[in-house]
Write a structure and sequence with these properties.
It comes from Williamsia sterculiae. This protein has 158 residues and is α+β, with helices and mostly antiparallel strands. It is 28% helix and 33% strand. The protein has helices spanning 13-24, 32-40, 88-102, 116-124, and strands at 3-7, 44-51, 54-64, 71-79, 106-112, 128-133, 144-149. 28% of the residues are buried.
Length: 158
């Protein structure tokens, strides 16, 4: 089964909301309307991972600031539970980092402090912890690390 990276489309919003609820159900998952709004914003880039024409994962990043002084913020990365453990998170993250690298931009994100798989993924791609946001995720009250990757800074790891 081959996975293909494509653009995320507004028509994908219901499936995104379905995956979002399964992955982030305890912390105010985005509804379909939120995905449609995010995809429509010109400063955002969202990608989809598809297998047999079915959406199995998605990821999004914002490109912010004036040209030459860009920063990027990763909004989300999610993979359907049935498709985890196959490197799809790396594929999605790499696509977002390609956007940031084209802008020569630092990349920022928040990740739950108990999400060991995501933290390992970000560590692998050159992110470092900058701080802690207590009670960041609601309604669970889970803490988040703020992480940063300097422009082009994955140290050659892929």
């Amino acid at each position: 089964m081959t996975a293909i990276l494509t653009a995320l489309h507004p028509t994908d919003a219901p499936r995104c909301a379905e995956i979002e609820t399964a992955v982030f159900g305890g912390d105010s998952p985005w509804p379909a309307a939120a995905f449609r709004a995010e995809i429509a914003e010109p400063h955002n880039r969202y990608v989809a991972l598809r297998s047999d024409d079915r959406l199995i994962g998605y990821a999004g990043i914002s490109v912010l600031g004036p040209v030459g002084e860009r920063e990027c913020e990763i909004h989300t990365i999610a993979v359907d539970a049935d498709h985890r453990g196959r490197g799809h998170g790396h594929t999605l993250l790499r696509a977002l980092l390609d956007v940031a690298d084209a802008e020569h931009a630092d990349v920022f994100l928040e990740v739950r402090t108990d999400n060991d798989a995501a933290i390992a993924l970000y560590d692998h791609h050159g992110f470092t912890r900058m701080g802690l946001r207590r009670n960041y995720y609601q309604p669970s009250g889970a803490d988040a690390y703020t992480m940063r990757r300097p422009a082009g800074g994955d140290g050659g790891r892929t």
